[in-house]
């Protein structure tokens, strides 16, 4: 068991959190690869959403840094905060364009926080869920 501020983390919770967090990291790495490889479909999607080609690299770097911080246990909460900001921008873009696909970044943000919540006893201490 992992101890953090008196909050024990069971092996089941720890592994469930790791798996969920790993899925989020894998999804973000997929997006990062599109940002660096810049296939035409990706460039066209950015244009369709109203973003110039010049913002693709800075946005990709922001996602890479946020994902790396999320993947490192010592900085995972800070990384989750940054990913939430990034995904909030994606949600806002989809909502502005009246696209129902805003649910994908919303679900990703929820899973990212659920992954950390399950594996970090300190976070459960700060944000306790009560019945």
Name the features.
131 residues, two-stranded antiparallel sheet, 6 helices, 5% strand
Q: Any overview of this molecule?
A:
By secondary structure, this protein is mainly alpha-helical. It has one domain. Helices cover 73% and strands 5% of the residues. The chain is built from 6 helices and 2 strands. It has helices at 11-37, 40-48, 56-71, 76-96, 103-119, 121-126, and strands at 2-4, 7-9. A two-stranded antiparallel sheet has the order 1-2. Helix 1 (11-37) runs antiparallel to helix 3 (56-71), helix 1 (11-37) runs antiparallel to helix 5 (103-119) and helix 4 runs antiparallel to helix 5. 22% of the residues are buried.
Proportion of helical residues? over 70%
Which range does the strand content fall in?
under 5%
Unreliable stretches (pLDDT < 50, length at least 5) are: none
H-E order: EEHHHHHH
Overall body shape: elongated
Q: What gyration radius follows from the Cα positions, in whole Å?
A: 16 Å
Number of helices: 6
Please count the beta strands (DSSP E, at least 2 residues each). Answer: 2
Report strand order across the widest sheet. 1-2
Distance between the termini: 24 Å
Count structural domains.
1
Structural class: mainly alpha
Q: Oligomeric status of the shown chains? A: single chain
Mean residue pLDDT: 90
Q: Report the major sheet.
A: 2 strands, antiparallel
């Amino acid at each position: 068991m992992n101890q953090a501020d008196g909050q024990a983390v069971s092996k089941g919770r720890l592994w469930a959190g790791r798996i969920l967090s790993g899925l989020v990291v894998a999804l973000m790495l997929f997006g990062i690869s599109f940002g660096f490889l810049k296939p035409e479909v990706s460039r066209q999607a950015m244009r369709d959403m109203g973003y110039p080609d010049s913002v693709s690299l800075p946005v990709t770097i922001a996602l890479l840094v946020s994902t790396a911080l999320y993947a490192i246990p010592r900085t995972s909460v800070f990384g989750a905060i940054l990913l939430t900001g990034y995904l909030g921008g994606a949600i806002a873009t989809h909502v502005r364009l009246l696209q129902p696909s805003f649910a994908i970044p919303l679900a990703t943000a929820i899973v990212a926080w659920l992954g950390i919540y399950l594996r970090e006893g300190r976070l459960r201490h700060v944000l306790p869920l009560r019945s």
